[in-house]
Amino acid sequence: NAGVTQTPKFQVLKTGQSMTLQCAQDMNHNSMYWYRQDPGMGLRLIYYSASEGTTDKGEVPNGYNVSRLNKREFSLRLESAAPSQTSVYFCASKPLDNQPQHFGDGTRLSIL
Amino acid sequence: KQEVTQIPAALSVPEGENLVLNCSFTDSAIYNLQWFRQDPGKGLTSLLLIQSSQREQTSGRLNASLDKSSGRSTLYIAASQPGDSATYLCAVRPTSSASKIIFGSGTRLSIRP
C-alpha cells in the first residue's frame, strides 16, 4: 500500500517564486490535512479538507492556498514564497471521525 | 486556547530501561489524545489513541495513560530497545473542533546500546 504520497520530497525556491506541493492518498479517506513542522514547534495545521469539495483554514493559513482536486488529492500552493515558509510540510489523511491520521513522509522546502 | 507541552525535549537512556514520556495540555475539554512516533526524515506514525472516556491504552511494550482532570498523559515504554529511538509527539483533539488536532513539540528519545 502506498498510503499517503507527497511530491516533491525536497525543493529549493527563491523568494517570490511559486510552487505547488502535491499529496495523494489511496486509502479512500474522507479528510485530508496540510501541516508544517518547524524546529521546536511541533506540527501546525495550515489547511484541511473534511470531505471532497470542502476546505477550511487551520492555524497558519496566511501565504497558502489549497485545492481538494478529488477524494484522493489535496494540493498546497505557495503563490509568492517567503523565507519564513522554509519548513517541512506534511500531508495527512483520515478515514473516519475518530480514527488516527496517516501521514506522508514530508516535503522539505527551503526558500532563499 | 489549547496548548500541548512535552518535557523534556530530549531524553537519553540505556537499553533495557523502562521509561516514561510526559505530555500536558491546558484545556481538559478534549475528544481524544494520540501518541505518535516520528523517525528522522519521515512522517508520523500513530502509536496509540485514547478516547476521552478511557484511562489508558496498551500496544505491545507501550502503554499510554490519560488523566483529563489534571491535563496529563504519559507514554510508558517497557524494556527499551535501540529501535525505540525516535521523536515521540502527543496531540489532542479539542471537543470544539471536528477536524483539528493540536500537537506538542515532541520528545526526542535516544536509547543507548
Largest interface: A-B, 26 and 23 residues
Outline the biggest β-sheet of chain B.
6 strands, mixed
- Strand percentage of chain B: over 45%
Euclidean distance between termini CA atoms of chain B? 41 Å
As a percent range, the share of strand residues of chain A is: over 45%
The general outline of chain B is: globular
Q: What is the succession of H and E elements of chain B?
A: EEEEEEEEEEE
What does this entry look like structurally?
Chain A is mainly beta and 112 residues long. Helices cover 0% and strands 50% of the residues of chain A. Chain A contains no helices and 11 strands. Chain A has strands at residues 4-7, 10-13, 19-25, 31-37, 43-49, 56-57, 64-68, 74-78, 87-94, 102-103, 107-111. In chain A, the strands form 2 sheets. In chain A, strands 2, 4, 5, 6, 9, 10 and 11 form a 7-stranded mixed beta sheet that branches. A 4-stranded antiparallel beta sheet of chain A has the order 1-3-8-7, with no helix packed on it. In chain A, a hairpin with a 6-residue loop joins strand 5 (43-49) and strand 6. The radius of gyration of chain A is 13 Å and the shape is globular. The model of chain A has no long low-confidence stretch (mean pLDDT 93). With 113 residues, chain B is mainly beta. In chain B, 0% of the residues lie in helices and 57% in strands. In chain B, the strands form 2 sheets. In chain B, strands 2, 4, 5, 9, 10 and 11 form a 6-stranded mixed beta sheet that branches. The chains are: A mainly beta (112), B mainly beta (113). Chains A and B meet through strand 5 and strand 10 of A and strand 4 and strand 5 of B.
Summarize the structure.
With 112 residues, chain A is mainly β. In chain A, 0% of the residues lie in helices and 50% in strands. Chain A has strands at residues 4-7, 10-13, 19-25, 31-37, 43-49, 56-57, 64-68, 74-78, 87-94, 102-103, 107-111.
